Amino acid sequence: MGLMQLMPATAKELGVDPNDPAQNVMGGAKYLASMIGKYGDERLGIAAYNAGPGNVNKAIKKAGSRDWNTVSKYLPKETQNYVPKVMKNWGR
Question: How far apart are CA 37 and CA 10, in angstroms?
Answer without folding.
Answer: 17
